[in-house]
Automatic annotation (TrEMBL):
Gene3D superfamilies: Periplasmic binding protein-like II. It comes from Streptomyces sp. R21. This is ABC transporter substrate-binding protein. Keywords: Signal. Residues 1-28 form the signal peptide. The lineage of its organism: Bacteria, Bacillati, Actinomycetota, Actinomycetes, Kitasatosporales. The keyword Signal applies.
């Protein structure tokens, strides 16, 4: 079955062919800027104050900070809050988690109504940072260590910076699959896995959508149709597939983050296979120019990309070029199958994104269920 499906391509007949040529073709080739051009734009000094100096200045400013962060559950950033509080105990951090696609329009509405709440935004919706930079909404600022961050994960002028290197793929429970583990996404359509797969809806989360679009490009629409026949348990929130696998309810989870650090003790394996797509990106973070607590915001960015924080990333990957990943891994941007250059272009093509969403809805059905972070309204964090 796998050898047969590997010969299938996305450019088949009907609507799938048009979709493959339109929404996907523009994202296939990696983008790169010449070193000379990058050097011309990488002007301006980095922050020279230490974290402790910034901390003292932030307390004098008022000692408060509000961050809007993209995520799946209200408690997903509790680890970040706890670590920040342990390092800076007297600073009052409010960190609100919601889907990035709701946070971004929430911020737009707050701009429009003069009711801005957050000082810092940290989202998966990469296209918003380009738009907000063009609108003059973002503070151009280079935290200490800016020069060490991978060029593709930062704006040359410092309008935004990637603070976390994240990858989505599929994962599986090692005891649930036994000795016959799926080696690549091609194996996920084997009938033996019917009823044993969980996935986040690709047409509800743009990162999962990009992952599924890469699958469709690589394996063809017949593969997508076979997956749709696998009785997949779809749910909202990219945390849901991992929760299902770690909880022992499903053997395989698609469209979720994970760690590829080799481990013999973990009950779950995050799959990356040479020659098969997964997807990665740098989660963009920026200080809003209208931030009420700009010094505290600068402290947050400096702490986020500091070596002490980046060495403790949950998946072993850092946004910094001077922090080597654990043995057995390469830097995220060194995997051509991670398509780190393709995801920003994909996100920028909003018409293409909508075509992908509606097409996957035809295969997998409409998105169902309440948003997993809850309904937060217009001004959470006030």
């Amino acid at each position: 079955m796998s050898s047969f499906l590997s010969r299938r391509r996305v450019l088949t007949t009907g609507a799938g062919a048009a979709l493959g040529l339109g929404a996907v073709g523009a994202t296939a080739a990696p983008a790169s800027a010449s070193p000379a051009a990058a050097a011309r734009h990488n002007t301006g000094p980095e922050e020279t104050r230490t974290l402790d100096e910034l901390y003292r200045a932030a307390l004098k400013e008022g000692g408060k900070l509000v961050v809007y962060a993209g995520g799946d559950t209200p408690t997903q950033q509790d680890g970040t809050k706890a670590a920040f509080k342990a390092r800076f105990p007297d600073l009052d951090l409010t960190l609100i988690v919601d889907y990035s696609k709701y946070h971004d329009v929430r911020v737009d509405n707050q701009f429009a109504t003069g009711t801005l709440v957050p000082d810092v935004v940290q989202f998966q919706t990469l296209q918003d940072f380009t738009r907000w930079k063009d609108q003059g909404r973002l503070l151009r600022y280079k935290p200490a260590g800016f020069s060490k961050v991978y060029d593709g994960f930062k704006d040359p002028q410092g309008a935004w910076i990637g603070t976390g290197a994240i990858a989505f793929s599929f994962l599986y429970g090692t005891s649930a699959v036994g000795s016959d583990a799926p080696r690549s996404p091609l194996d996920l359509v084997d009938p033996k896995w019917k009823g044993k797969i969980a996935s986040s809806y690709p047409h509800d989360d743009d990162a999962v959508l990009y992952l599924y679009s890469l699958y469709a490009q690589k394996y063809g629409w017949e593969w997508v149709a076979k997956l749709a026949a696998q009785d997949v348990q779809f749910a909202r929130g990219s945390n849901s597939p991992g929760d299902a696998v770690f909880g022992g309810r499903k053997a395989i989870g698609i469209g979720t983050a994970g760690s590829a650090v080799p481990s013999s003790s973990s009950p779950v394996k995050f799959s990356i296979a040479d020659g098969h797509p997964f997807m990665g990106w740098g989660q963009r973070t920026a200080i809003l120019k209208q931030a009420k607590n700009s010094t505290a915001a600068k402290l947050f960015l400096n702490w986020q990309i500091s070596a002490e924080h980046q060495r403790n990333s949950f998946n072993g990957w850092s946004v910094r070029t001077d922090i080597a990943p654990p043995a057995g891994l390469k830097q995220l941007w060194e995997y051509p199958d991670a398509h780190v250059d393709g995801f920003p272009r994909f996100m920028a093509d909003r018409a293409g994104v909508e075509r992908w969403k509606q097409t996957f809805a035809l295969y997998f059905g409409e998105v169902k269920g309440d948003p997993t972070p809850g309904w937060l309204g217009l001004h959470p964090g006030v």
